Amino acid sequence: MNKLNTEFEKKTPTSKRLMEDAKKVMPGGVTANIKSFDPYPVVMKKGSGAYLTDVDDNQYIDYLLSYGSLMLGHGHPNIIQAIQEQLENNGTFLFGTPHALEVEMGKRIQKYYPSMEMIRYTNSGTEATLLAIRMAYAYTEKYKIAKFEGHYHGGYNQVLISVNPPVAEAGSSDAPKAIVESKGVEPSQVENTIILPFNNLDACADILKKNQHEIAAVMLEPVQAGFIPGEEEFMKGLREITEDLGILLIFDEVKTGFRMGIGGAQSLYHIKPDITTLGKVIGGGFPIGIIGGKKEIMMVSAPLTASDVFDQSTSGKSSAKDVLFHSGTYNGHPTILSVGMAVLDVLEQEMDQVLSRTEQLKEGILQLFATRGISMQTIGVGSIFNIVITEKKHVHNYRDLQQCNFSLRKEIDFHLLAEGIYTKPLNRYSLSTAHGQKEIDYTLEAFERVLFKKM
Ligand SMILES: Cc1ncc(COP(=O)(O)O)c(C=O)c1O
């Protein structure tokens, strides 16, 4: 056991015990692989505003915010009120029929994301990107997608490819190889996913031209992993190339939506993707995904002319295969849409403050590292950033990121955990409306203690 773990384990004995128990119930003790870290993850028991409290009663300022979802922090009173009102007014949790809020919320989304001319609701970001791919296949009648090395779109077969590949195995930076990231992925999925290098327009153009007749869509995180922005020229070029080649452009804004600004990355870049996926923030901590795009594309899922898979009658309509089937018992869940409305109400008032506090924190951290003589950058746009310890002037993509000093960053992160600053080691920092001046000041003091006294 190294020194770092001793400090961590001294503060978190109950987490250690509970995680040992958890391993008897769930593989690895977790129900999402991403929540696991060595020596064991911290087990939390309470959240309030910007704070989390663990099972040993340690308090933390939360910068993970459930992987960016909780943009209003923990337990925001407006969200609690929205839930109570929805339950009281509607008298049920779920209608199992269309309801008015689906349209009301849809119109509000379209105000901020005009490219989403028609929308559908799903229950997670994963489901939204999965549906985006099927929409692209259905519309173009081509059956491959191109995605970028280092970009994450959810935990299913076709996109669990080249998210975090070993560089030594991943081929040249101009033509990255497709590397499987999980057991159980069928080889055919690898063949159907073409990998592109982020922020390298010439290389992307070559790959896309070569595979033009097979690629239905390019899907990307417009800001890689929520913090490495696509360069403006690159993004504009990618839009033009995909348009010219008859390939759809999918912006996966599950992370960036409502966080780069209310209108997401597309409003910053002034780019209209063909399809957009949203999730996380708009659910305020509850499961949701939204997919939307050009009307002519989205209409492939309209059950207007074809019967659906479960339709036994031969109602004069053509068969199920003529329409893209999309369903889900909980799609457009009224409680979650009420929460989403409350989230938008608060963000409309407080977004600017979150953005300026994020800048203040980034600047403060940057200065502390500079004074300590450690080369690093606080890379990010909007209300998310990451601390990247590197001598490099520019970090453009996955390959650049692999050259940064992860072990020093991890050491700092464990010291920060002991100081009451929470993010999963090596993860991003996301801010919320609950992160006020007091929390920013405390965080910078904690960084100062770690950088100047503990290291
Ligand atoms: C860009 C992106 N797409 C999709 C997903 C998957 O969303 P979910 O975890 O809600 O299924 C995530 C989750 O982190 C994401 O960051």
From TrEMBL:
The entry lists its GO molecular-function terms as: transaminase activity
| Membrane-spanning intervals of the chain | none
Coiled coil residues, start to end: none
What InterPro entries does the record point to? Aminotrans_3, Aminotrans_3_PPA_site, PyrdxlP-dep_Trfase, PyrdxlP-dep_Trfase_major, PyrdxlP-dep_Trfase_small
Signal peptide residue numbers = none
Going by the entry's taxonomy, the superkingdom of the source organism is recorded as Bacteria
PROSITE patterns membership = AA_TRANSFER_CLASS_3
Q: Which Pfam families match?
A: Aminotran_3
Gene3D superfamilies, A to Z: Aspartate Aminotransferase, domain 1, Type I PLP-dependent aspartate aminotransferase-like (Major domain)
Q: Identify the cofactor(s).
A: pyridoxal 5'-phosphate
Indicate yes or no for the key word Manganese.
no
Keywords attached to this Swiss-Prot or TrEMBL record, sorted alphabetically, are: Aminotransferase, Pyridoxal phosphate, Transferase
**SUPFAM superfamilies the UniProt entry points to:** PLP-dependent transferases
- Give the family from UniProt: Belongs to the class-III pyridoxal-phosphate-dependent aminotransferase family.
Q: What is this protein called?
A: Aspartate aminotransferase family protein
The taxonomic lineage of its organism, from the top, reads: Bacteria, Bacillati, Bacillota, Bacilli, Bacillales
